[in-house]
Amino acid sequence: MKKFISMMLVLTMAVMLVSCAKPEEGKKEEAKQEEKKDEGAKKEEAKQEEPANDGEVITLRLAHNQTSLDNPYQFGLVKFAEVLEEVSGGTMKGEVFPGTLGTNESELAMKLQTNSVDVVVASPGFMSATGVKEFDMLSLLYLFDSFDDWEKTIDGEFGNKMQDIITEKTNNDFKVIGYFSSGVRNFYGKKPINHPEDAAGLNIRLQSSPVQQEFWTECGANPISVGWQELYQALNTGTADAAENDMTNMSLKEHHKTPNGKYTSETNHDFTTRLLLMNGHTFDNFTEEQRGWLMEAAAAAVAEERAVTYKMLDESRERILADGGEINKVDLEEFKAIAIPIQDKYAEENGLTELLELARKSK
Questions:
Q1: Residue 293 vs residues 85, 215, 308: alpha-carbon distances, Å
Q2: Which of 5, 81, 161, 265 has the smallest count of CB within 10 Å of its CB?
């Protein structure tokens, strides 16, 4: 009996010890679970603080309206893509679309606003069709006298102010990240011109820039609208009597081989500016580091495009002459006499007189 009682006491004590141990073990297990939760929360918090990229490659669509792969725009945007990939360590890339997303610059501008494209090259003349008249400041004829004059002005205070004005007036829809050149534009048509009045009665294809249309109207010509890709046919059939462009672009499209494109007169009326544009809102959404990469790529693209443009000018002149085209010089002062009052009127009407004077002082 005593043994039985002793065994019962031992069993009772064992049960009590086990019962006491279970809550203690439960507390330890709960503590471990809480510790794991805290670690998980810290990891999640750290993850949220990391850059959003997480190794994802951002590919930008770079577009221009020229279909020729020999065009300076193409060389510039290819350089943009190369440098962007290099400086970003491969986290940002660019894909170039030469005329495949649109051969009309106004169409490319619209796509830029809707984020259907990320970087475009566009002329101020076509951009003025967006309703922002300030773009036309860069379309004023005889604003620059040489490439040296153009570079000094566009890369200086004048160009910086134009960037700010464009950003402000477009509510940041368009941001200038660089200035391309497209050579110097000349008249070409079914006959040569030596004086402004020689253009009287000619149907001349122009951009949509009001100041350029006003200039040629003052010369007596009739401005007409023809798409760039349709211009060869228009010159060939007589729909257009003349046009104006730089020797590289017009000869790459073989306009000089048409009956109404044979004669090139060196009016040198426009040392051209082409805008390398992004959507300002899209640009601002990138990190500070990414914006730095974009601007570095833009600077490299500008340098490349200008170098190719200047190199191709002499080659294009030789091509035109070799193919039977004719080139003549003109009295520039007669043409400038028509352009200067148009510059003054435009600047006064748009509150840009100080900016115009700044451009003139840079010469």
A1: 9, 41, 23
A2: 5
Q: Report residue 131 CA to chain centroid gap.
A: 18
- Cα dist from 212 to 50, 110, 224, whole Å: 51, 22, 12
278's enclosing H/E stretch is strand 263-278
Return the residue matching tokens 């010509």.
Answer: 221
Report how far residue 38's alpha carbon sits from residue 42's, in angstroms, rounded to the nearest whole number.
6
Mean pLDDT of 15-40: 46
Question: Which amino acid appears at position 169 of this protein?
Answer: K
Beta bridge mates, 95:
61
Other Cβ atoms closer than 10 A to 332 = 15
C-alpha dist (Å) from residue 174 to 110, 171, 352? 10, 8, 19
Cβ-Cβ contacts under 8 Å for 346 (sequence gap 6 or more): 136, 137, 140, 211, 352
pLDDT at 54: 55
Please give the CATH superfamily to which domain 58-361 belongs.
Bacterial extracellular solute-binding protein, family 7 (3.40.190.170)
Q: How far is CA 264 from the centre of its chain?
A: 29
Using CA atoms, how far apart are residues 352 and 228, in angstroms rounded to an integer?
Answer: 30
Residue with tokens 């462009």: 245
Q: What average pLDDT does this structure show over 51-63?
A: 78
226 alpha carbon, distance to own chain's centre:
23
> Is residue 52 predicted with pLDDT exceeding 50?
no
**How is residue 67 written in tokens?**
């279909």
CA atoms within 13 A on the CB side of 207: 26
- Joined together, the tokens standing for residue 171 give 């509510």
Rounded distance between C-alpha atoms, residue 175 and residue 190, angstroms? 39
**Parallel, antiparallel or unpaired: strands 92-98 and 58-64:** parallel
Q: Which of 70, 96, 309, 274 is nearest to 178 (CA)?
A: 274
What pTM did the predictor assign?
A: 0.80
